[in-house]
Design brief:
The chain is mainly alpha-helical and about 220 residues long. It has 9 helices and no strands. The chain has one domain.
Length: about 220
């Protein structure tokens, strides 16, 4: 037989922890979250923009080279130049530089191709240095926000009269740590993106070097 029935609804509501959402965490991070958000947006933009350009530049150059080779062997320099102008890729622009120097000494052609290759590699590596900087700056900015947050938390604790509640202490610490977590997320994304893009640039550079070597071998062969 039940002698007493206690309504625990009010008690459960009183002891239930506050719901922590992502938005609340971001807002709790303070002003430091603004530069972290900007760094994250810039990093994602650079990764997406570079991926599109590098993949476009990394298209298989075999067909292009075969067409240029056929035109050069036939002695149709204008057609070879037109084939390169039709394509919008680093390799086509490098080959076009070499074709424009046909008739000169092979060393002049090699120099023109080498200079064109350096320019194309520079274009492929555009903003990669900024992405590398973000990969290092993101965690540091986050750690700076954590230090500032911890200082504010301890100031609040020092100003508290009497015993310090565990809730005040824990909330101040976890809010301060939010910026470190956000900075690490930005840094990890930028770091992984940077290394992946560098690998892709190296692949494109290798294809450019291989194609230009074949082109120079073609010019040195007796026709």
């Amino acid at each position: 037989m039940i002698l007493f029935q206690i309504d625990t609804t009010a008690i459960d509501a009183a002891v239930a922890p506050e719901q922590v959402t992502l938005i609340n965490l971001v807002l709790a991070g303070g002003l430091t979250m603004i530069p972290l958000a900007l760094l994250g947006i810039i990093a994602v933009y650079i990764i997406g923009e570079r991926l599109l350009n590098i993949r476009k530049a990394g298209a298989d150059p075999t067909q292009l080279f075969n067409e240029v080779k056929s035109a050069v062997l036939e002695g149709s320099i204008e057609r070879a130049r037109g084939i390169c102008a039709r394509e919008d890729s680093p390799i086509s622009r490098i080959l076009e530089k070499g074709i424009n120097k046909l008739g000169r000494d092979i060393k002049h052609i090699e120099a023109a191709i080498e200079n064109a290759g350096k320019i194309e590699v520079y274009k492929l590596e555009k903003n990669l240095g900024l992405l590398a900087t973000i990969s290092g700056a993101g965690p540091m900015v986050g750690f700076y926000g954590t230090v500032v947050g911890m200082i504010s938390a301890f100031i609040a604790i020092a100003q508290e009269e009497g015993s310090v509640s565990p809730k005040l202490l824990s909330s101040g610490i976890y809010e301060a740590m939010i910026t470190t977590a956000a900075g690490l997320i930005v840094g990890i994304i930028a770091y992984i993106g940077y290394n992946y893009l560098v690998t892709q640039v190296q692949k494109v550079t290798y294809n450019m070097e291989l194609t230009t070597i074949e082109f120079l071998d073609l010019l040195e062969k007796p026709h």
